[in-house]
DNA sequence: GATAGGCCTTCCTGTTACTGGAAGGTCAAG
DNA sequence: CTTGACCTTCCAGTAACAGGAAGGCCTATC
């Protein structure tokens, strides 16, 4: 399989796949012409990575998850730990963003949006 | 005022203030010894920037907001537009994150977290 | 006057996870 | 034999700084 087909089937850009090879997440073979030759197992790994990334896991987490996936002697707790830390980070980020959203909503709601210079948004930022 | 005092009073790291000067957001004077010499107006600008950044505005947005702030002939609509676009982005990000959170919560909740290798999190990522 | 500590300066590198683009080799079809 | 669609490597850029090295400045103290 060439990179184009893998990209299609894994739903990842070819650039991303090359990058994943660069950082050692996948190690495709090479054809005699220099083209990358992906096996089904490489495709499978890439799809795994795509799904993990879609859940917001960092590349470092993905690497760890992939290793655990391939390690028959892993424990569920190792996997769960990674997921839980990640979940906490996401929850924290959501609450940060929710606070920004609330403030912004309030400010936007109070701004007339007309052609006069007076604006509560700027007032709030200037905090005079 | 030297950079240290400004950093304290504006609540920004000195590194960040130097960076803001680099990209032209503030233009402090210089003392004869080469030290940056901040006026009250610089401090005020930096505090403005700090608050805008805390609301998640990008540096580009901050630059635009600062310009509007200093432009007496601005209109509230120009400010509101920037804030509204930003608010939409935040709302979109929150909903992306909320979806990840829901999926992760479900997976984490279904993972025993014990010392056996079987784990629904990995199963879901592998999607066999 | 020497020195120590705490400022300040610039410059360079690294971070995250790619994306875009240039320059050029390969392959299948017409 | 040329065209177009692949593929390759390599370099630069993104966002918004943070860390750290090497060195100058300032004030106080001995």
List key phrases describing it:
homodimer; mainly alpha; 6 helices; 2 strands
CATH topology of the largest domain in chain A: Multidrug-efflux Transporter Regulator, Chain: A, Domain 2
Strands side by side in the biggest sheet of chain A: 1-2
**How many helices of chain A?**
6
- Level-1 CATH class name of the largest domain in chain A: Mainly Alpha
Low-confidence stretches of chain A: none
- Largest interface, by Cβ-Cβ below 8 angstroms: which chains and how many residues each? A-B, 52 and 52 residues
State the assembly state of the protein chains.
Answer: homodimer
Q: Strand pairing plus helix content of chain A: what structural class?
A: mainly alpha
Shape estimate of chain A:
elongated
User: In whole angstroms, how far apart are the ends of chain A?
Assistant: 63 Å
Mean pLDDT of chain A, as a whole number?
Answer: 96
Cα-atom radius of gyration of chain A: 23 Å
Biggest pleated sheet of chain A: 2 strands, antiparallel
Q: Care to count the β-strands of chain A?
A: 2
* Number of self-contained structural domains of chain A: 2
| CATH architecture assignment name of the largest domain in chain A | Orthogonal Bundle
Strand content of chain A: under 5%
Helix content of chain A: 55-70%
What are the secondary-structure elements of chain A, in order, as H or E? HHEEHHHH
